[in-house]
Amino acid sequence: MENGKVHVVKPQSEARLAILELAHIMSVPTSLVAVLKMKVPEAIWQGGKNTPLSASQILSIVRPNGGGDAENLQRILRLLTTYAIFAEDLSSNGKRKYSLTDIGKALVPDDDGLSYATYVLQHYQDQYLRAWPLVGDAVEDASVEPFEKLHGEGAYAYCMKRPDEMSLFYASMSGLSMPHMNEMLEKYDGFKGVETLVDVGGNSGVILNMIMNKYPNILKGINFDLPDMISSAPQLPGITHVGGDALESVPAGDAIFTKWTMLTWTDEECKKVLQNCYKALPVNGKLIVCEPVSPELTDESQRTRALLSGDIFIMTMYRTKGKHRTEEQFKQLGISTGFLRFRAFHIDPYFPVLEFQK
Ligand SMILES: C[S@@+](CC[C@H](N)C(=O)[O-])C[C@H]1O[C@@H](n2cnc3c(N)ncnc32)[C@H](O)[C@@H]1O
């Protein structure tokens, strides 16, 4: 008996609830995409104030010419409140009003138009959504990615042929990478003393630019990526864009950085790239890797879920035998390719820094 209510927790009813939640879980990302497309976070954040607004007030901002169903918007906002994207306020005569939580604020574009919203929107484009029902095909036949089976080409090739998709990919990568790189650069000082830094799979070059701004000792930055991927990369001070394939060779530098690349390579391909990095480094040179690192234990934590669900995204869209690896798997890959020292810095729960020294 608690507060006059009798709580009878029946394991079987909990099991039924869990199944119902999973059965309906598509409502969550699709509702999130809907509010992002309607620019609801921006509407609540107007003037940087985060004022709680009712669904009809939000609609009057996102639909200034009228229209839209406030009750249905409120239904969506309530669901997303259960995922702590919005906070619900019932203080004004029981009328529900919504503000942004810290998670919701991460979806509001910054002055450069970047936020986590772009990453979400990029992932929920039609070409990916249509590949999801084929996820089990990666078990039946691991020789071809479900995305490629459906579209006749791999996810990178698909992206690189389409200029709009490329811009979205750049913005998605930058929007996600910049906030945690800011924190990483505050806490990790492994770029001290480096004069030439190569970023393998550096995409638009914005991360290399961030590193160089923080470490003026880096005089030369080489942003290395697939030729078509850097074809529309912006010009950035001190940075040379070099097109190539890391599976063939990597430009020389006194340190090499790579972030969020190895997950799309098989173990054999990772070894090849690590060998190429080894060759491109001087004695004592460092390879600094920033990759999703899967936990050894399978638990129900948010971190484990974020990492294991990202792993299935990779398996379905990019590479059936690419993967999120554990720290030990990274260490063994480094040792097998000749690196002498391995250190892990757990600055970010999703993207730890892994240092391999020659
Ligand atoms: C997920 S993105 C990460 C981009 C950036 N490093 C970041 O963290 O925001 C992976 C990048 O690796 C690049 N890439 C994939 N395979 C590559 C290869 N074989 N050689 C060079 N770059 C490659 C892709 O073109 C893409 O820009």
Architecture overview:
The chain has helices at 11-23, 27-37, 40-44, 55-62, 70-81, 102-105, 117-123, 126-129, 137-140, 146-151, 155-160, 163-187, 206-214, 227-230, 267-280, 302-318, 327-336; strands at residues 86-92, 95-100, 196-200, 220-225, 239-243, 255-259, 286-290, 293-294, 325-326, 341-345, 353-357. It is an alpha/beta fold and 358 residues long. The chain has two domains: 11-105, Orthogonal Bundle (Arc Repressor Mutant, subunit A), CATH 1.10.10.10; 117-357, Rossmann fold (3-Layer(aba) Sandwich). A seven-stranded mixed beta sheet has the order 5-4-3-6-7-11-10, sandwiched between helices. A two-stranded antiparallel sheet has the order 1-2. α15 links the parallel β6 (255-259) and β7 (286-290). α4 crosses α5. The longest helix is centred in the middle third of the chain and has 25 residues, at 163-187. It is globular and about 70 Å long. The structure holds S-adenosylmethionine. S-adenosylmethionine (SAM) is lined by residues 156, 173, 177, 201-203, 207, 225-226, 229, 245-247, 259-261, 264.
Give me the secondary-structure topology:
Layout: H1 11-23, H2 27-37, H3 40-44, H4 55-62, H5 70-81, E1 86-92, E2 95-100, H6 102-105, H7 117-123, H8 126-129, H9 137-140, H10 146-151, H11 155-160, H12 163-187, E3 196-200, H13 206-214, E4 220-225, H14 227-230, E5 239-243, E6 255-259, H15 267-280, E7 286-290, E8 293-294, H16 302-318, E9 325-326, H17 327-336, E10 341-345, E11 353-357
Parallel strand pairs: 3-4, 3-6, 4-5, 6-7, 8-9
Antiparallel strand pairs: 1-2, 7-11, 10-11
Helix pairs in contact: 2-5, 4-5, 7-12, 12-13
The protein binds S-adenosylmethionine.
